[in-house]
Amino acid sequence: MTSVNGFCNICVLLFGILHLSKTITPRTSFLFEPSLDCSSHAFHQTGTPGRVLSRFNASDVQNTTTLLLSPDAATLFVGGRDTVLSLDVSQSDGITLKNKFDWEAPKNPECNSLAFNQNCANFIRILQFINSTHLYACGSWAFKPQYTILTVDSLKVSKKPEHVKGHCPYNASERSTALVVGEDLWDADCTVSVHNLGGILLHINRREKHTTFLYGKLYTATTNDYFGKTPVISRYFSDDKNDLQLSDNSRVQKGATFIGSSYIPSEGKVLFFFREAGTEYNFMNKFTVTRVAQVCIDDNGGERVLQKRWTSFAKSHLVCQAQEQLPFNLLQDIVMVPAADAKSPDNTLFYGIFTSQWALTSGQSAVCAFRLADIKAAFSANYKTYIVETGEWKVQRNRDAILGKCGLHNASDHILNLVKKSFLTVNNIQAVGHKQLLTSKEELYSRITAQRVQAANGRMYTILYLLTESGFLHKIVLLKDGYHIIEAIQLFKSPQTIKSILVSITKGMVFVGSSEGVIRVPVSNCSFYSSCAECVLAQDPFCGWNSQSKKCIQLYNVNPNLCQDVENGNFTDQCKDSESGTLVPRKVIHAHHYEWVMLPCASSSGLERVSWRFSNHSIVPQSHYLQQQKDNLLVLVTPNTAVEFHCVSEKQGLQRTLAVFSLKPHSLGSSNHSVHSLDEDTLNSSLPLTQPKNYYVEMVVVSFLLVLCMCVLAVSIFCVQRQSRSTASPECNELSRISSAS
Amino acid sequence: MTSVNGFCNICVLLFGILHLSKTITPRTSFLFEPSLDCSSHAFHQTGTPGRVLSRFNASDVQNTTTLLLSPDAATLFVGGRDTVLSLDVSQSDGITLKNKFDWEAPKNPECNSLAFNQNCANFIRILQFINSTHLYACGSWAFKPQYTILTVDSLKVSKKPEHVKGHCPYNASERSTALVVGEDLWDADCTVSVHNLGGILLHINRREKHTTFLYGKLYTATTNDYFGKTPVISRYFSDDKNDLQLSDNSRVQKGATFIGSSYIPSEGKVLFFFREAGTEYNFMNKFTVTRVAQVCIDDNGGERVLQKRWTSFAKSHLVCQAQEQLPFNLLQDIVMVPAADAKSPDNTLFYGIFTSQWALTSGQSAVCAFRLADIKAAFSANYKTYIVETGEWKVQRNRDAILGKCGLHNASDHILNLVKKSFLTVNNIQAVGHKQLLTSKEELYSRITAQRVQAANGRMYTILYLLTESGFLHKIVLLKDGYHIIEAIQLFKSPQTIKSILVSITKGMVFVGSSEGVIRVPVSNCSFYSSCAECVLAQDPFCGWNSQSKKCIQLYNVNPNLCQDVENGNFTDQCKDSESGTLVPRKVIHAHHYEWVMLPCASSSGLERVSWRFSNHSIVPQSHYLQQQKDNLLVLVTPNTAVEFHCVSEKQGLQRTLAVFSLKPHSLGSSNHSVHSLDEDTLNSSLPLTQPKNYYVEMVVVSFLLVLCMCVLAVSIFCVQRQSRSTASPECNELSRISSAS
């Protein structure tokens, strides 16, 4: 029972603590607010006041599954359905269309007769810089894949589209991955901030020499047939037409699904991430595993053995599993985050989203991290060899770590025959810490991107951006011990299945492609936090409180003067000199007695505990006040009801008044409304009750008139008696005068 | 809007259908009602009026984990802590103690220093008829197992207790199983109705020749060390001291848990059911599997190879798994139900309760059935041989189905060497229908027993009796397509971990042993169902409606004249000539206006849908009436509230009025109670509200007085004026008289 804001009689109702399980509760949630402007090719701003999103929607731009950002992050190349676009994303006030290349597949009755006829269009599945002035694009072209070369500047056709096999999938709903690597195109030791994965190129520092029409080499992993059953991992645009393929089907299992790929300059290798049947396991049923496979960029294929085939192909099992529990075995998306120190590339991390082939009680999806050093270790250790005759696996000891090495295309036939048979590592690659970084029971995460960011104190933090199937973007910071969901931003009102995501680190923007267009989300909006405590509690490495300007501002450099505590959100230490809250305006609610009133109070943060405090005129049982779903309070207005209500949120001892309501009872009988509400939406499951008629005022008025009347009558009778007995008294004359006047 | 029971203005509120998931909803539930009589060695009756349970509790009888019924089902032998009892269970009015054998282990400081010191007593783990006049008993005897032979009639010691290894476990908390088979003791082709499993003997037809002190042979499977790690499967009391053991530890994995055993006369085999590490599988982590192992009763061990060892041991994997889902891999209890036709013993079924080593979303426990024919097929097909050198399994083709056969103790050394290596079948034994018969998300089933019963129309049905960890007995009938939980009877107020169960088919009784004593539950109580519809809806094969006597009676024979429909509970066809309900008395509720009233209505069946119907004086919004948790109705009493409320349950179109309430509003202002309730317990989460003061009556009285007063005043003034101008009128004289009088 504390005294707050001058109230002398304060009751504190601490309602049941909301689901505080940290597993999935974002600190701040921004819900979807649709834009009113729906004109064609329109850019518009949407979102809550706290989170302004830029959208590029156009009726003829659909399924923007492929996104590619220019090195200067000013232009976003978008591959959609039957179209390639370039968008100017350099202006803060909007996204504008720069160029458009229409690339429609002809109406094909043969295609339309297929079971997958919703995919009978040209869905662009690869967009890559093939050199500094040209773009490579591959589209499914109604189950007859085509590729083309476009100029970066104007999206003009530089090489006419032509049919091609093994570059991108026949069926646009199949996953595939591709990237371009070229000695002439890329610095071997350039800083690849976040590389492309799942067909998504993120942000690459490129050499400044323009070598026009000298192509980089294209590394692809895709299914290569109508039904998406035949997996291929290949290299195209090789020197001397020395394109490479997988040697046979057993290397990648039929029905494999390719998720992502990554170029590792320090190793001279390209890594492919995919899932396939785990044939080395012998469980009750088919068991799918997540793999990482490697190929070397210097591979030229063998001379006699493995001609035109990879001599460097090897694969291993990525395990996202907590102790003794079932693994999250199905990779959904993966992103590479380079080591903080460019000199130790072995600390490069891969963050993957996983689901499980079984319905697990532990959750729907999980995030695991894998270290490059662990992947390297698995590839340089022993291998398994499948003995076709017996159907069994034998261990192939890897003497001198020859297997898994680059440069084996020059090796002896004996070694190449060994390579041909032994491509699966004995050791699995365990996730960092042998555990999941996070698991979510509620959310099915579909896409991931990530970046490192330096906090005010100079410490590096990893930020994960996760797209949920329900249409939210979760921004999560990984802490020393766990994680914290900083924000959950609703991007789509309804779930969107086709999605892509990339982050521009230099511009501080996240781009999301969906079936309806492109959305740009700033990585942070620090100004949303209006007090030092809120700014620190956000635990957002991008934001810090400036005590001079009394503002929560975005960090660009290390700045120890800013108040910030990413690890703990401890505002008590950080905000010693700052006021911790802002004034909230008081809302006056007019209501009738015996009417139910809904007082809305929405805490923006799921981690806060909301309670209601109210003043009382008298002692009233708490049962008069019913807390409804969410944090709203449903109040029955009675003559005894409190008149002032405070909605207070609390986190780590910080009390923040979110709303103040004054109840003003109406004069009686003037309304028939049974429920008075401030927020129609929150009322759906409220408890409407009629207002019973109370005759108190009427009775008082009538009683007063009765008393008055009786007084007059008494005086009147007194006078009459007096008059009848003797002469009229002055009072009685006065009374007679009144009577005459009436 | 129908007209029911003469109401002209009936509103029908069909509230949200209660959780109708058939998975776990029993039709009728009987909750625990503790007995008041708690005297020592007391028999008492407890339970609801619908279900009377007989209990035998005694302060010195605890942990009655072992139950054995005499062939005439008149005597129940009970093995508890430090004691063996014989109870007379033949009297319907109670259970009485016949004899008692105290068999205490001495206080042993060595034992008490062990980690398991709560088990430092003599827990009787085996009770078996060793012949027609004697009982074999084995107890853990504070980690130094002892056995003894007692007389059946008086529980006198016939052979002094002596230490023994391999009969029953050292640690009483370890599971074990044992049974006695003897050529001289049992008919080879006798009808074993339901055999003993998990140390539970059920009901056996025994030969009538008494061969005193000629023992049957004891088959046991138990752990055989302090820590319960060493599993042994053995035979004792063999002819010529030719007792048999497992040949080596690899046959049953270290740490195996034995669940049950079964004698199959048609095969001359004993089957053991257990779980152990599934070493033939290669999954991410240790994977436990459920096994069935066989030994032949004619086995005498090999001459040179496998001397004094089983030559007939083989094991297979029992799979309780639905398509593509994770298996329920941990057997908890299993019961044998002989084939309906004794001439085709291959149709013998085994019903097992399974849980999973993982937390599955599909449920906590499942029941699977296995057919003897499928078990035989697995044992006569190919075997796996473990190659120690390579750590791999090879397939051993079973030419002429030699492996798994009985009589191999006479075979050549070559064959016996093959038998020694090849004891695991290649084929798994799938559950009947390759699926679970039932899965339960809520209940953890711990023990099972079962019986076949013939319905009124002659069809055979299987009844499962399942004990839940929460202290309930579920009685379930297996239907053509699914199952139906007929009853859920609460036996224990709090969960009981040590339990045993057996059914007496001839007496129609289920016996349950717990840590506190023995409970006897009749297999049915048909008289609970008071109408034809309820009797048929119960779908209980034991019960049928007799149209003549208008009673729901227990079936003893096929009787097509009784109304019964076990498969569908279709009472419309069955109860054509019978009335379908009984009259319910009306309850009068006195309440104040603006008071909340809780109207209780408890449907005994979770499968029924409860709705409320009420008469209205005027049109009132339904929102006045709030249905609380369960089926109770919370009503705000207003001048407009309905006066009569009917609680109606509905199943398959049958409407049954469960309760009728009349609301009588009190005179105003005479009570301060804010909530009026008929059932205090159901009110815990109700919505109490104060009754606002209504001044209507007061206002009417005051208004009347005001009008009267004004009339008097008006007349008075009129007279005064008249008097002052001229002579008094007769009316004014009258007024003056009144004034004078007042």
From TrEMBL, chains A, B:
Molecular-function GO terms, alphabetical: chemorepellent activity; semaphorin receptor binding
A Pfam family the protein falls into: Sema
The keyword GTP-binding belongs to this UniProt entry's keyword annotation: no
Sema domain: residues covered: 35-523
Name under which the protein is recorded: Sema domain-containing protein
Gene Ontology biological process terms, A to Z: axon guidance; neural crest cell migration; positive regulation of cell migration; semaphorin-plexin signaling pathway
InterPro entries: Plexin_repeat, PSI, Semap_dom, Semap_dom_sf, Semaphorin, WD40/YVTN_repeat-like_dom_sf
Record keywords: Disulfide bond, Glycoprotein, Membrane, Signal, Transmembrane, Transmembrane helix
Residue stretches spanning the membrane: 695-720
GO cellular component: plasma membrane
